[in-house]
């Protein structure tokens, strides 16, 4: 569709897409740890009284 002249650009965009998907994959694996750490810190500093309103 874009011809031979555009093939390197299309391949570069495809490589960039693969890299970005790997970054998203890493972030998705790390986020639960961060949420747990944030919850633990908040509950230790403020007590469970601050977390209960967020649950309901």
Can you give me a brief rundown of this structure?
The protein has 56 residues and is mostly helical. It has 2 helices and no strands. It has one domain (3-55).
Describe this structure in words.
Helix content is 93%, strand content 0%. The protein has one domain (3-55). It has helices spanning 3-46, 48-55. The chain starts with a helix and ends with a helix. With 56 residues, the chain is mainly α. The mean pLDDT is 89. The radius of gyration is 21 Å and the shape is rod-shaped. It is built from 2 helices and no strands.
Features:
rod-shaped, 56 residues
Would you spell out the secondary-structure blueprint of this structure?
Elements (H helix, E strand, L loop, with lengths): L2 H44 L1 H8 L1
Helix pairs in contact: 1-2
Shape: rod-shaped
The domain count comes to 1
Radius of gyration: 21 Å
Mean pLDDT: 89
């Amino acid at each position: 569709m874009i011809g031979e002249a555009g093939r390197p650009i299309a391949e570069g965009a495809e490589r960039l897409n693969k890299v970005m998907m790997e970054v998203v994959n890493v972030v998705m694996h790390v986020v639960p740890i961060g949420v747990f750490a944030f919850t633990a810190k908040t509950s230790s500093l403020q007590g469970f009284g601050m977390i209960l309103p967020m649950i309901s």
